TrEMBL record, chains A, B:
Keywords: Glutamine amidotransferase. Pfam families: GATase_4. InterPro entries: EgtC-like (IPR026869), GATase_2_dom (IPR017932), Ntn_hydrolases_N (IPR029055). The keyword Zinc does not apply. This is Glutamine amidotransferase type-2 domain-containing protein. It comes from Phaeodactylum tricornutum (strain CCAP 1055/1). Transmembrane segments: none annotated. Residues 2-277 form the Glutamine amidotransferase type-2 domain. The keyword tRNA processing does not apply.
Amino acid sequence: MCQLLGMNCAAPTDFSFSLKGFCRRGGETDKHSHGWGATIYEGRGLRCFHDTLPACQSPIAELIQNYPIRTYNMLAHIRYATQGEVSLENVHPFTRELWGINWSFAHNGDMPLFANTDQDIFLGKTTSDTVHFNAVGDTDSEAAFCAILNALKAEFPEGLPTLSVLHEFLNHICDEIIAGRSEDTIFNFLLGCGQYTLFAYSWPGARSGSTVWNGLHYIVREPPFSTARLLDVDYTIDFSAVTQPNDRVAVITTKPLTEEAGWTEMKRGELLMFDKG
Amino acid sequence: MCQLLGMNCAAPTDFSFSLKGFCRRGGETDKHSHGWGATIYEGRGLRCFHDTLPACQSPIAELIQNYPIRTYNMLAHIRYATQGEVSLENVHPFTRELWGINWSFAHNGDMPLFANTDQDIFLGKTTSDTVHFNAVGDTDSEAAFCAILNALKAEFPEGLPTLSVLHEFLNHICDEIIAGRSEDTIFNFLLGCGQYTLFAYSWPGARSGSTVWNGLHYIVREPPFSTARLLDVDYTIDFSAVTQPNDRVAVITTKPLTEEAGWTEMKRGELLMFDKG
């Protein structure tokens, strides 16, 4: 299994604090050492970082923990390979362009529907004639991302709908992925849609024979800001000293990153939409 | 105008030597200081690095000059903005997935056909119903890349053709882009198709009122290897000491990077295909 980190902000924010703790889990405080990746929205563009090294050893991860990139929206992933070998094409987040918008996807879980990645899965109105996105690597996660985008393109041929329509449609698509496999499916994902919008979905669970719980937790930090201590490394930050009164930051992650009041576990089947925090 | 660097190799090769000289032109020995980018194929995956900082100042550029990533195929670009503002979405190389393959594109020049990037251009058999790829940013370069991929998808709905058929078709598409605008067009590009294959096309020229010549030069290094000195920084390498007998490396760039016999300027309208060197 893997771990996810997302951040969605009302104003461009430096994510190095959260990433500092998260990357320790990639081989140091936890076992997710089969590569890591991050996609960071900047304007309409997207900075992508992918490495097959553990996050705790990767020179690229070290660089972006110290390089002050500020963003409204980012997602990151540390991988513990359960499907697909350890190779760059299997490192999340995956990215595609649809309607001139950069989309990005990171997943934690097991999806029986996508277990055979050689076979196209048609969600929503997708048909064999309307398949546009194809997986490059071998993961069920990338196959699911492509199937979701194919369904979006088939449903909205004119382009991006309103965010509330998009939210409702994604909810239907998630139901379709779970339907009839609710016991065997673990499906937690972060989906970035352009520079301001991040979707988080949770269908949590533990793999057969394992006690490790895979869910999603989130916290929304807004004034008055307080201090927080990272759980994975001895590092404390006083947010009131580094924030502005209009700041608001949502952090979504597999397991809480800090000793701090306000972390909430997402409900089963919940799809949250964060837009500018 | 911008400058291009591509490398295509018979065996995975470290490109830090070429990149070291090339990045100096991004703000130090030349004026191409409006961002830089590189895409580096690794297996079926793709490492992407983009920055709006000049290449000579970018911490990310410094990192990958020193981080020994070895690859069969890579392309890089330093930008001097003539169309589209200085922003991450306008930084080359651009990337898209087609047929489950990562494609990547970097361009130097001016294309009157794509001067109005709000308007879709249909190349080959593309129609308004078969447009799949859309530009995210504002450059004529990304618009051209999307139009080329849309034409490929319309022509070969079943997937990737043989490389010789692909080469021939790309030649036709380049003719279509130049046709009727041969005097006003400067169109030098590198197009990466998956982990082994790189296309280089040159339609060289100088912009009106400028003496700067925009073309493409290439060199193929193979045994017996000799030494080469970078032109942009005081650095010499003895290739015979760092290579194996089966190595063969093609380097393609706007202007030769080294004092070395063997650099050849591409002919007007020439489309070269490099496959594993």
